[in-house]
Amino acid sequence: ENTNDITVAIEVAKEYSLEISVALLPGEISPKLKEFIFEKHINDISGIQCMGIERVGYQNQEFAPKVFETIREILAELHKYNEKNRASAQAQAGSDNPIADVAEKNLEISVDGGVDHENARPLYDAGVDKLISGHAIFESHSPAQEIEFFEDVLG
């Protein structure tokens, strides 16, 4: 969890106007990473990629259901961040001056690894915006049908 190198990478990416996403392993997000993402760099990143597998870089792994915990934590932290911003804007406006809508911070949440027919809909229903699936598509008898299935899930 050394975030120093990541901070440097984020700063370089910002210099080049690149979109920045953070990848997380499945399971509980540590307090240090929560602070790093949701307090220090929330305005620098546009998405969070949740790994649906335990070992990054290895194909044909079982889906790690702990990713649902990661998704819930991300959404809870985003909610807290947006509530804090709303309260801050209201405090600055004063109690006699109701504020108009405060823009909410949204992050694109994606899941990569182990995504298949069994978990695609539950992942989408949990709040995932993008499903990344290699094995389910390329190892199927009809990749075109698999792609169509995932497009239907995402609407």
Characterization of the model:
The structure is a single chain. The chain is α/β, with parallel strands linked by helices. The protein is built from six helices and four strands; from the N terminus they run αβαβαβαβαα. The chain has a four-stranded parallel β-sheet with strand order 1-2-3-4, covered by helices on one side. α3 links the parallel β2 (47-51) and β3. The longest helix is centred in the middle third of the chain and has 27 residues, at 67-93. It is globular. The model has no long low-confidence stretch (mean pLDDT 90).
Structural class based on helices, strands and sheet pairing = alpha/beta
Element-by-element helix/strand order: HEHEHEHEHH
Described by the principal axes of the CA atoms, the overall outline is: globular
Mean pLDDT: 90
Taken as a percent bin, the fraction of beta residues is: 5-15%
